[in-house]
Amino acid sequence: MIWYKNNNSDIVVSTRIRLARNVDKTPFPNALKDTKEVTEKIKNAVLGGNSTLAKDFDFIDLDNTPLIRKQELAEEHLISPVMCEGKGKSVMISKDRTMSIMLMEEDHIRLQIIKDGFALDEAYSLASKVDDVIEENITYAFDNDFGYLTACPTNTGTGMRASVMMHLPALTMTENINRVISSAGSLGIEVRGLYGEGTKAYGNLYQISNRITLGLSESQVIEKLTNVVNQIVDMETKARNMLKEKNYDVIADRLFRSYGTLKYARSVSSSEAKSLLSDVMLGQSLGIIPKESKIAPLECMVLSEPALVCDGKELSPNERDKKRAELIRNNI
Amino acid sequence: MIWYKNNNSDIVVSTRIRLARNVDKTPFPNALKDTKEVTEKIKNAVLGGNSTLAKDFDFIDLDNTPLIRKQELAEEHLISPVMCEGKGKSVMISKDRTMSIMLMEEDHIRLQIIKDGFALDEAYSLASKVDDVIEENITYAFDNDFGYLTACPTNTGTGMRASVMMHLPALTMTENINRVISSAGSLGIEVRGLYGEGTKAYGNLYQISNRITLGLSESQVIEKLTNVVNQIVDMETKARNMLKEKNYDVIADRLFRSYGTLKYARSVSSSEAKSLLSDVMLGQSLGIIPKESKIAPLECMVLSEPALVCDGKELSPNERDKKRAELIRNNI
């Protein structure tokens, strides 16, 4: 299932496993004059094999893709934002849109699995299978001491980044989020706002991921991340219950006002939409706001992103804000 | 009709005529040791006569009225706020609640007619009739040079204050209201915010009234006030059309957000309610917000006033704000 579709997850929104791989004896993308040959090689390794899994992918040459369509893919988290820029890049996306293989990002291959909810083991197992299919035809750059070699040394080793997207409105509201960030950090786990600058996280969505790729096996990383995520789930749950029990009137008023604004506003910016939709998510999760939305608030958040909201049309920022308000108003 | 009931007036909300009268050869209320005798005299003058008009009044002894009920009367504009305090005061109110005769306010008699909409002549004619009924049995303090004598010299002469309540959101939003206030002032017409302190008028409701009671006849005052009110109506209409034509998106978004907030908020203060309801009034008048309210926004504004919203119950400020939000949410 596409991670953001019909997603009514309370706290853990989605899970992502990303593997960085490079073709042996070939310069990394930033040092590669022509990416065609390597791209063909990897494309054939995936699409040309006998695996049913691999046959499921569609190849998209990003050089021939309009910018707005690339931005849409980035907003769906199927490619990273840097893939929207530069030349010689491409991506293979599975028909169910849960797997993507970026070519010529920072590394030759960035294989990524996204699942809705909390599913690290399942996502890792799927990533491994796709990784094996590719490895049948490609020799990876690998060092017996260091493991998988990558363009940036922070990825060397397993080449794996495991991350979990969490909705943490109560920890943010009660200002406990900074304590969470620093204590996770001391365990080698990074917590960062998915949107917004500095400490402000629009939508109260945070990405929790491993910082370390060297010296720990994949399963050790996943175990450690699982423990930290479970602890944060516990803290967020307690913070939500406290808000509901001790501050019901204030919190219900705030969440309903956000709901009312989204139900009636005629123009909403992207950052405001995220904040208000986060309130609706919290309100529905606490049983304060009825779950009557045609589209779950998280899906509204993704579908109202700047490129996706345009639906292929060229819109000015004002027109986009009106279109976003309309989309949310009709579906929340 | 009660001035605020089913009142969908666009700009001129209501009209009020107030006459100040005193009983001849009797100290003004502030110098009167015992108000009983004068009160009885006036009460009998009104209720004891043969006039059908006068028979219509109910007598309320404010000494035996709980404070909250007195505050309700003040919020309905049937008594002035000072009538809630002190001893020896009473009021006679007509069954249709458009006429009230306050006894022992600043003067022995403050006769007041309130009509919905713009109806200065009609209100004055009714005030004169009631005035005549009282004068059949009471000799007023009257001087051939000065006219009716009153406790405060600013009322001496006709003893009449004619005023019109206007909803001026567009002139306020475009900051033209200060120009209106000063140019009306130069004509002896006072414009003041009905609610709020300083220049801030919650609800964008203004009271436009004559400052002069001496040297002009009643009909001259009414004619002058009519001219000024018509000019302000014209200015407000132009300002509204300009907002709608030049700033439709911004204004529609703002007005709908206010509507959405009132439709969903769980707690609303009195001043916020007035501002948001003023937006809904403007939105409905401009045809932006559909007129689907069970109770017109102006009526919601009055019914959600601090005392009226309590509906006879003792409520804390927090409970009142919740009750107000509920009342408006269910009726707007």
From TrEMBL, chains A, B:
> This protein is called what?
Protein arginine kinase
Q: Which residues bind ATP?
A: 14-18, 77, 110, 161-165, 192-197
Q: Which SUPFAM superfamilies match?
A: Glutamine synthetase/guanido kinase (SSF55931)
Any idea where the Phosphagen kinase C-terminal domain is? 11-239
What GO cellular-component annotations does this UniProt entry give? extracellular space
Q: What EC number(s) is this enzyme filed under?
A: 2.7.14.1
Task: Look up the domain of life of the source.
Answer: Bacteria
**What InterPro entries does the entry give?**
Arg_Kinase, ATP-guanido_PTrfase, ATP-guanido_PTrfase_cat, Gln_synth/guanido_kin_cat_dom
Alphabetic keyword roster:
ATP-binding, Kinase, Nucleotide-binding, Transferase
Q: Name one GO molecular function term.
A: creatine kinase activity
Gene Ontology terms: biological process: phosphocreatine biosynthetic process
| Similarity field | Belongs to the ATP:guanido phosphotransferase family.
